[in-house]
Amino acid sequence: TSTVLVLGIETSCDETAASVVSRDAGGRGEILSNVVLSQIDDHAAFGGVVPEIAARAHVEALDRIVQAAMDEAGVGFGDLDAISATAGPGLIGGVIVGLTTAKALALAADKPLVAINHLEGHALTARLTDGIAFPYLLLLVSGGHTQILLVRGVGDYERWGTTIDDALGEAFDKTAKLLGLPYPGGPAVERAAARGNPHRFSLPRPMYGRPGADFSFSGLKTALRIEAEAIAPLSETDVDDLCAAFQQTVTLVVCDRIGHALDRFRAEFPDLADPTLVVAGGVAANKALRAGLDAELSARGFRLVAPPHALCTDNGAMIAWAGAERLALGLHDDLAASARPRWPL
Ligand code: KG4
Ligand code: ZN
């Protein structure tokens, strides 16, 4: 196989994104363009993403975002080898906008369509940015997902851990809302936590020490609300201290869960020279969490690979790249591919 050129479209949440990526015969990738339009301002007043507003915003923006990605890459539709789009999981209105647009482009340009699982996009990004080899472990922590995945190969994944209720980013966002901090909550909670005392409040550590690698965050949110109500009205110091306790607790829980997964990975691949954990998703930007993970990994001889922040959060390059990886294996889809709100890897 030779170099392939793929356009990728991502519309499953609140980013309207398109990108052109190439992949050569040796598996090396290059990002030719990566255009992301965030809808954060459209949703901020509601404290979270409103699906109907998101879908309408994707309709309004997608044409020009795709054109911008093509222009920036300096290619025409005839130059492409495939067109890929997120087909799920995600907010279904937005997914339909992106997938239908990709189908129309694929039909008009007579190119294959590659329907991508959004999680696969996150899972394969580190191969684009860091060229890492299979197998590796992935910790995906975003507003919509909290998962630990074994990545054995393209299309070959095993879910070792998932949240039984809220996603980690969602827990940060809900904590922020409860404490009167702005949306998105993660960065606001992190800033407040940096000023706070993590030892003033003691919060439960859901799933800590349990076998397996699953997560739960909803009980933590409830415990935090009860602490906050008991001392209301909250001073700035109270908010800082509550954020510090929350952040420290989730860091301990995530490190515990990851520790279990690292041990299992070691047991399954005892001869692997360079065992690697990849982190992805918006929450991976959290410095306290990263420090905790670093310690956990070095204690076990694992390497941490963290793609640049812009490629950890939702973007088109991860979808284009997943499309290129699939295409290189001869995998693509027909125009009947359907949009799926739920789609476990
Ligand atoms: O991956 P992402 O941009 O979008 C999806 O959810 O797909 O992740 C956004 C999430 C939000 O919940 C946001 O609050 C959280 O990532 N986040 C953070 C930080 N930056 C973003 N959480 C904790 N600490 C941060 N610094
Ligand atoms: Zn995502």
From TrEMBL:
Binding site for substrate: 140-144, 173, 186, 190, 286
SUPFAM superfamilies per UniProt: Actin-like ATPase domain
Binding site for Fe cation: 118, 122, 314
GO cellular component, one term: cytoplasm
GO BP term, example: tRNA threonylcarbamoyladenosine modification
Co-factor binding comment: Binds 1 Fe(2+) ion per subunit.
Ranges where the Gcp-like domain occurs: 30-321
Molecular-function GO term, any one: tRNA N(6)-L-threonylcarbamoyladenine synthase activity
Reaction(s) this enzyme catalyzes, per UniProt: L-threonylcarbamoyladenylate + adenosine(37) in tRNA = N(6)-L-threonylcarbamoyladenosine(37) in tRNA + AMP + H(+)
Enzyme Commission code: 2.3.1.234
Alphabetized UniProt keyword annotations: Acyltransferase, Cytoplasm, Iron, Metal-binding, Transferase, tRNA processing
Keyword Transferase: yes
Record flagged with keyword Plastid: no
Requisite cofactors: Fe(2+)
Compartments (UniProt record): Cytoplasm
Pfam families in UniProt: TsaD (PF00814)
Enzyme class: transferase
Coiled-coil regions listed: none
NCBIfam families xref list: gcp_kae1 (TIGR00329), T6A_TsaD_YgjD (TIGR03723)
Task of the protein: Required for the formation of a threonylcarbamoyl group on adenosine at position 37 (t(6)A37) in tRNAs that read codons beginning with adenine. Is involved in the transfer of the threonylcarbamoyl moiety of threonylcarbamoyl-AMP (TC-AMP) to the N6 group of A37, together with TsaE and TsaB. TsaD likely plays a direct catalytic role in this reaction.
Protein family according to the UniProt entry: Belongs to the KAE1 / TsaD family.
Protein name per Swiss-Prot or TrEMBL: tRNA N6-adenosine threonylcarbamoyltransferase
Gene source species: Kaistia nematophila
Taxonomic lineage: Bacteria, Pseudomonadati, Pseudomonadota, Alphaproteobacteria, Hyphomicrobiales
